[in-house]
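hey can u check if this looks right to u? its 487 residues, i copy pasted from the old doc so theres a chance i mangled smth
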Amino acid sequence: MRRRSVLLAAGAAALAGPPAGRASAASAGPLVDHTPAVDLDGTSGVDLSSRVRALAPLTTGTVLVTFRTTSHNEAMTLISASDPAVPSSNLTLNLSGGALQFSVRQRGAVLVDVMTRTRYDDGRRHTVAVTVDSTGTRLHAGGHVVFETKARPFFGSVSGLTALTLGANRDSDHPSGEWFLTGTVERAAVWDRVLDAGELVARCPRPVAADHGRISTMLNSNTPATWVLTGDSITHGALHTNGWRSYPEHWTERVRWELGKPKNRDFVVDSGVSGATSAELVAYFTERVAAFSPKVVSIMIGTNDIATAGLGLEKYRANLVSLVRSVRALPGSPAVILQAPNPVDPARWPGRVALSGYARVMGEVAAQEKAVFVDHYNDWLTGNGGQVPLSLLSDGMHPNERGHHRIALKMIRDLQVFDTGSRVCTLSIPRRAGRSRRAPLHHRTSPPHQKRDCSCSAESPSPCCPPPSWWPRRPAPPTARPPRPAN
């Protein structure tokens, strides 16, 4: 009880804004602004009810919350205005299994209830917002729109609002609260006007790239989208996955199946080509990117640039800028993801040790061009004490099956669709499968010391590759039965 008293007192002391009542539409400041960070343990909330009268008449405006949480609970309130004398009359911005949810109910009647597929329970600082005006409702994250609907109920749609609570919702069935938040709320504020894009970005301690917001909108939309993932042999997924999925295939499963219908109408195209460089991708941009009419284009390139004459860092930078701008020039101005290549084993590939410079340049280009940057290079190193994780590599350079899954997980996390209930996200690949630098015995077509450039098969083995024991044998022809003796 002492903790609850402290939180209630803190809520009252932290409030700032004009006296109770409707502020003018020209008011620049928030009607409610709770700024001291508060840690909530899932058992109580912060009472802000002394300011709810200023919000009750609003039909347009902005609700903004900055928070952090690692809890995956199915119902956790960020902020809620309610009528505690009746059941199910509330306006609530909350998290549901990490997804952002906004709902408005009037005495049990649902006026709006929308939820994102993108998730915000990764422990990082997120700033989310709801804006409502005459054109509809928009959910924002990191300063950018991530979901839209034409429905537009707001505080004024719920009668009898007398409670405003941070981290919980209250009604007659739950007078002490429900849907408690486990996490930290750094700020909760409400304006009587819609903040524009610049204002929302300015109020985000950790804003995201504009393309990140556009990609989130596509993930949260029911409109089909085409994703093109292009690059070199790593994106191609050639040979080194040992029969497991490559990272584009993991992404395909996550989006087209696990996010549910109608996302199964999205299409994911892998146009990676083994041996490709940034210069080659510029030259073949039409056939490898433009031909597929994409909405999102992911580019992972650089591993071969460092080993190609004439493709130093500045030429690499110029090629990346050209590729990003070529993507943006396509119809619909597709969103761009730049993905840094993974590090390589310096003992086996000493000529590619400076790959870190290419990852750095890619990050600089992403920042300059306001594209999404997924930094696999540093993710692999920081996750392994600064050393190259050899267990994720097949030949010291190409990711094996475990490496591809690691790349997919980084992409999934950075694009906010990680889910502990997902088979892709929780897939466990045996470590022994990633250790071998050769194919497992049951995948070999010849002994390790022999060349494999012949065209042997189960039906036509040759002397250079005698058939292994696991090959199916052609059945022997039936033995001619001797004639039966005449009786």
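The CA atoms of residues 391 and 431 lie 8 Å apart.
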